[in-house]
Amino acid sequence: MGGRVTRVFRNFNVENRARREISKEKPMPAPRHRTARLDTMADSPEIKEEVLKKDDRFLTLLKDVYVESRDPPVQVKDGGGEHLPSKQEEKRLTKLGHLEGLDVKKVPKGKISLVEALTLLNNHKLQPQIWTAEKIATEYSLELKEVNSLLEFFIPFTVLEFPKETKKAITSRKPKQLT
């Protein structure tokens, strides 16, 4: 559908636009700078004689030139597919609880694993007085502004279960008011 609409606009009044463009005055090219023409100079006998003349001094210098060329040693590339890191990163052991089988064992400093992120968000949610942003930053080797952003923008889910006898919504929690 969109192709048909664009084709209509593209082909609208195309003949008149083409005639208008063809009938425009052609711009005058900029004047060229006067230069000595090489082909007129090549016809002169003095230049032909100078070009064909052998200079003994240049010939002796040319005979002294010796160029030796060698190929660089061939480097064998390992096709293993693994790339070695260019610089060695500092790594730290992860702080895992009961989920240690699900996660990596070492993480670069300044980064956290997924399980650690969920753990620290849950700890902060349950005990915000103990797990402050400063403590989380020192515990996991992170920057404070990144931890503040993490705590502000990421919130772990809360599971609410309805009682079996009633299927009504829980009224104990007040809904958040948007400001």
From TrEMBL:
Residues 20-42 are annotated as: Disordered. One of its GO terms (biological process) is mitochondrial respiratory chain complex I assembly. GO terms for cellular component: mitochondrion. InterPro entries: NDUFAF4. Pfam families: UPF0240. Binds calmodulin. Interacts with NDUFAF3. Belongs to the NDUFAF4 family. This is NADH dehydrogenase [ubiquinone] 1 alpha subcomplex assembly factor 4. It comes from Sylvietta virens. The gene is Ndufaf4.
